[in-house]
Amino acid sequence: MKPNSILITCKQMQVELPRHRSALEAAGLGLLAPELTAQQFSSNELSPMMGNVIGIIAGDDELDRAFFENSPDLRVLVRWGVGMDSVDHEAALEHGVTVRNTPGVFGREVADLAFGYVLSLARGICEVDKAVRRGDWPKFEGVTLAGQTIGIVGFGVIGREVAVRARAFGMHVIAYDPYAEAAEQSASVDFVPLKDLAERSRFLVLTCPLTEDTRHLVDSSFFGQMQPDAFLINVARGPVVKEEALVEALTSGRIAGAALDVFEDEPLPSSSPLRALPRVILGSHNGSNTREGVARASEKAIEILLHELEQKWHQEQ
After folding, report:
1. Which domain range does residue 87 map to?
2. CATH number at residue 89
């Protein structure tokens, strides 16, 4: 029998399946949607599922060489969302698998969360909430955002949306992105070297992809260049920041605080010292998860999957 199954491992995409089931069935495709109880499936967990599977819409799963070696029928892999760091692209190419993501679908959602973190750090919203719940009535002295400098590392779709929100609050926006096209650069945003951005930013927001160039981009040396009253916000990928260096910077007062939606190990281990540090806001890698964003990304993922499978079928005839 000709392979015809589609595997959906992304939990958010699974919520949207009732809207897209008819399109998949009309294309003669079967559907598999295993329950996900952790952050992602490991390669070992995925391998037994891959017989007869020609397409997969994956979340943050471990898509390594072993995964592709155990996926003999796979033709198309769509990474639901933007991040591609979990995919062994060389192995995919060797096995003839087309790899796509859903670019540009979450710019506003992730930027909203990033700026929510900026506001929370500036005004101590989380600390005040906890104190009032304890019966206290604190008078937290915050930071006026107007006139402050916000630095953005990575000026793609998300970075540009963060800049829009920052300018609306009267902030001065600087950015670092060695790959930004001239068309992406704006007269209202100053592009500066990374060292200058670290030195000048009161709020520093990471929105860059995880690559070999950006892994541990923010390390002890980077923190040494930041202002002691500066705040770090990471809505990119956890390994962009060397967490050991971040903990040291926070405990020593090298920086004033941080807000982290992502971590080097996810979920955040119970032993992580970040859990006990003040002026640290912890998220759960959930920046893209809004009703509108999930629907948008899922529609895009199905559209890309069906298009790429059709291309493959034509090539193989």
Report:
1. 5-105+291-316
2. 3.40.50.720
Give the global pTM: 0.92
Taking alpha carbons only, the member of 240, 281, 310 closest to residue 83 is 240
DSSP label at residue 134:
T
Q: Which of 39, 44, 53 is nearest to 265 (CA)?
A: 39
Catalytic annotation present for 62: no
SS3 112: helix
92 and 123 both lie in a single domain: no
Based on the residue annotation, tell me whether 108 is a catalytic residue of this protein. Answer: no
- Which among 45, 127, 266, 303 is annotated as catalytic? 266
Catalytic residue, candidates 165, 172, 202, 285: 285
Token pair, residue 79, equals: 């990474």
Helix extents (H) in 99-191: 107-123, 125-133, 157-168
Do 145 and 67 belong to one domain? no
Quick one: 141 and 88 in the same domain?
Answer: no
**Each residue's pLDDT tens digit, 192-221:** 999 999 999 999 999 999 999 999 999 999
Count of domains forming the chain: 2
Annotation marks residue 285 as catalytic:
yes
* Same domain as 124, residue 264: yes
Q: Which of 79, 108, 237, 254 is catalytic?
A: 237
Give the residue among 125, 112, 164 at the shortest CA–CA distance from 291.
Answer: 112
